[in-house]
């Protein structure tokens, strides 16, 4: 990034989000803001401002947005994911997935639009997953259980495409990014072997730097490879 950038990472208390704010805070030309659901005095990173925000709570999202007047890049990392087959997931539990992983980003993007419009960069990066890739999931023999989580991430991808279509005339870049298999609380549910959060975060930050409006409608993974929708 050449000129000063303001980057907001939603869901920065731990895992990939925390690694992202750590990575961004080391940049001299970047103002980094991270959100947490519960204020935590132990999260005291130099050069990172923490703001309270729960993506499932409209008022909390609106309050955070009122405290942040300008952003170049909005990274929506907050998410939930367990290994829940749709066969055994109740409708209420599926609704929770959708609330956190789809309605949450919808609330956040709408609330932070004025802050994004206040700058020229206008970049929105929902952190998605290959579990939401219908192209991959529908391949014969595709391994791994995506289940209810996959349903929510596929909907998140469509949300990103629709925001792109409606915001492209204003010069917005809306690109979902799969972070890879990462050794976090979520990633470790699939066993050991996920990459360190810092490795994924460094690659995502580099990838995001280069994304412009012409990359909208492409689904990327952390290392810059294109993922099937
Ligand atoms: N790890 C992987 O291998 C992997 C693979 C593909 C995609 N992803 C995606 O990457 C993103 C980050 O995953 P992760 O592995 O870092 O997960 P994680 O370790 O479980 O962390 C999840 C983050 O989301 C926050 N969050 C959850 N619900 C929230 C809510 N209602 N409002 C605001 N924040 C909320 C959590 O905050 P609290 O601390 O308050 O709970 C935490 O900061 C997710 O979107 C996930 O789907 C991860």
From TrEMBL:
<dbReference type="InterPro" id="IPR052184">
    <property type="entry name" value="SDR_enzymes"/>
</dbReference>
<dbReference type="InterPro" id="IPR036291">
    <property type="entry name" value="NAD(P)-bd_dom_sf"/>
</dbReference>
<dbReference type="InterPro" id="IPR002347">
    <property type="entry name" value="SDR_fam"/>
</dbReference>
<protein>
    <submittedName>
        <fullName>Uncharacterized protein</fullName>
    </submittedName>
</protein>
<dbReference type="Pfam" id="PF00106">
    <property type="entry name" value="adh_short"/>
</dbReference>
<dbReference type="GO" id="GO:0016616">
    <property type="term" value="F:oxidoreductase activity, acting on the CH-OH group of donors, NAD or NADP as acceptor"/>
</dbReference>
